[in-house]
Amino acid sequence: MNTNNKTLTLGLFGFGCVGKGLWDVLQSTHGIKAEIKQICVKDRTKQRPLSDTLTADKFTFNPNDILLDESIDVVVELIDDASSAYAIVKTALQRGKAVVSANKKMIAEHLDELIALQQQYSVPLLYEAAVGGSIPIIRLLEEYYDNDLLRSVEGIINGTTNYILTKMSTEAQSYTTALKSAQELGFAESNPHLDVSGIDARNKTSILCTHAFGVIVPPENIVTIGIENISSADVVFANNRGYTIKLIASIKRVDSALTAVVAPTFVPLDSQLAFVRNEFNGIELQAAFSDTQFLLGRGAGSHPTASAVLSDISALTYQYGYEYKKSKQPDIPTFSNKEKISIYARFANEDDAAEFPFSEIHQWFSIKADGEVKEGTVVIGSVEIDALQQILSTSQPNTVQPLSIAIAQLTTESLSTVFLRQESLAF
Amino acid sequence: MNTNNKTLTLGLFGFGCVGKGLWDVLQSTHGIKAEIKQICVKDRTKQRPLSDTLTADKFTFNPNDILLDESIDVVVELIDDASSAYAIVKTALQRGKAVVSANKKMIAEHLDELIALQQQYSVPLLYEAAVGGSIPIIRLLEEYYDNDLLRSVEGIINGTTNYILTKMSTEAQSYTTALKSAQELGFAESNPHLDVSGIDARNKTSILCTHAFGVIVPPENIVTIGIENISSADVVFANNRGYTIKLIASIKRVDSALTAVVAPTFVPLDSQLAFVRNEFNGIELQAAFSDTQFLLGRGAGSHPTASAVLSDISALTYQYGYEYKKSKQPDIPTFSNKEKISIYARFANEDDAAEFPFSEIHQWFSIKADGEVKEGTVVIGSVEIDALQQILSTSQPNTVQPLSIAIAQLTTESLSTVFLRQESLAF
């Protein structure tokens, strides 16, 4: 039993949506032995929501008021800027303070070093809120699935894109309308690039690779396709065939190879992932013994994210730290982009489609112009992940880019049964 | 960080479905530092699946070969018989051995004493496999939702009944046919009483009350209605109105009152719980900050259950134990059967329906005989849980029992919008 529980003194960086949420949660919840001593913020002009408990002297503009305060045990880092966050987290760990962070970009980009720092200074860094919001996926991978043989982790881990794709699929909204509605409701930033490009999901996928399979995969090695080019035509094509399109982070182990791809993906309409709607996140695990496991929860938002941060703080009261167990086990897989995947690709015309480096073509549709749907060509075929990455990289100026791409199915076997039936193309 | 990892020596009681599964899993998984030294079984005549590693000398018929063996750190109790299990677990704890058990009946019936024994002898008893099979619900309630303010835990926590109800709903099978098919596939015991009566789910619900809300609720205090009386007519009635019937364990906190009921329940067809099919289990949590969380996984079976047992064993390698945190927090709710719930009840005739102690009637349907559907009366109305328990108890010989009962909705507000529309009764 854990008997060393003590009251933790927290230093908080950032008082935006999640920071305020954490303050609220700490005021309302009982039983956690933690109090915020100091809050470091950047903007000196911003009005703060002061109260009897949240007095002006709680705030500081000087990071050292927290980092050099010996009485502060835990630094809670909840700022947007990844490079400032990195500097804060690194200094905090070096000064022997435990750290809780929700900054997936910073963590994904420095994971190797952050693991080393934790070991060197014998202090934990927890970041449950960085992946899947309120879904306790990292804790479960570390503590509960630590000895099962995982086969795959697949999930919807970005609420913004899921909200947009849900509206496009269930309310036949255009991408532009759905994005606007997401922004109005606060589910998308005014600059939604990090979300709609898949980069946010890619950072989270990188973190999941480490906790699920013990492999450090730098985010830039993960082939990532955003949802910006997904049109209503693509969504209708999928729906008519019993699928919906979701932005899926897919991490799969086959023998000793580990693949990870973030891309719009055809998901069967009767699957759990299709059922993850609007801003929710959902993650499906396949393991040798526990078989299928599925987790659903709010992927973002002030209170859900704060509740994940709070769970990390609570875990620190009994000296919990990630052990990165999977990376210490034998038979760690090797990350590879050599696997083939089956994709759906829509091209402006047949000539463009013919230039695409498919290793195998399963279906070829010529689209006739009809109302808003323009003429084009849809091909479902296999491509090596590496070749796909080459096409997508801007360093290849003369390559023809498809208008849109989605993962059709990750194995060609199941695809052949689904798509090789001859179907007429009815958008 | 947890640095005290050591290799655990296990003594296993029982070598049935789950015991064999645990043996398999331990052979295949890497990284866990645990080995089975001795397996205690009862039946001297049964053939055991011996192998190079599973040699005959692993087996014993004498419990003391495990209980008195000082070199055995952990007793893994996987036998069917709850009273023998209790004796084994109690002795093991008294002898300072950690215990892993999957016996929900034994745990639910002795939870108070088992908590005291853990404290008295400073040894942990873990039982993740007892509730929700491979779903890590107890661990999450203990470790992750320990500081969120839980409002409700609702779930499908019995795979047998869920398989039967799924077949009745999606394939229009009769209860008898669906039960037979469950038995043939191994999803139901030859004597399915404990499952179909709801008693198995009731035991699990009792355990969940403790970990979710800090309240010890003896199983017999939980109003429990089985699925034996649910007919095709009930299933069709629900389906026609956008619902399906599931055996739901529902634990809800309203202010300082805690209610828990296990009963067939009308679940909206587009909800996550409706989507839990066949032998799967699914649990939905509602909390103040993390909001809706949903977990799905295999609720039973050799390997899924063994994987939960293995996760407990793995947790023991770093001295993990349940802290029953919720029971130490302020504001623990009080268990109450005084709340009103809205139920669907089908009676043989109007006279029987008139005798039922509804506190309010929302809808009243008279059913005309039509093919296999017999004449009868369906009433949707409110009843106090206590009054329902009185009716259901066999100690009231002169009370008219409804032919079938299901929870319609737990709040009358939402019910009034759903059911008070005048609808014709079309089975």
Structure described in brief:
The structure is a homodimer of 427-residue chains. By secondary structure, chain A is of the alpha/beta class.
How would you describe the overall organization of this protein?
By secondary structure, chain A is of the alpha/beta class. Helices cover 33% and strands 25% of the residues of chain A. Chain A has helices at 17-28, 64-67, 82-94, 104-121, 137-143, 159-170, 175-184, 193-196, 199-213, 232-240, 302-316, 350-355, 385-392, 412-419; strands spanning 8-13, 34-40, 59-60, 74-77, 98-101, 125-126, 150-156, 223-224, 243-254, 257-268, 280-287, 291-298, 334-335, 340-347, 360-367, 376-384, 404-409. In chain A, the strands form 3 sheets. In chain A, strands 7, 8, 9, 10, 11, 12 and 13 form a 7-stranded mixed β-sheet that branches. At the A-B interface, helix 1, helix 5, strand 12 and helix 11 of A face helix 1, helix 5, strand 12 and helix 11 of B. Strand 12 of chain A pairs antiparallel with strand 12 of chain B.
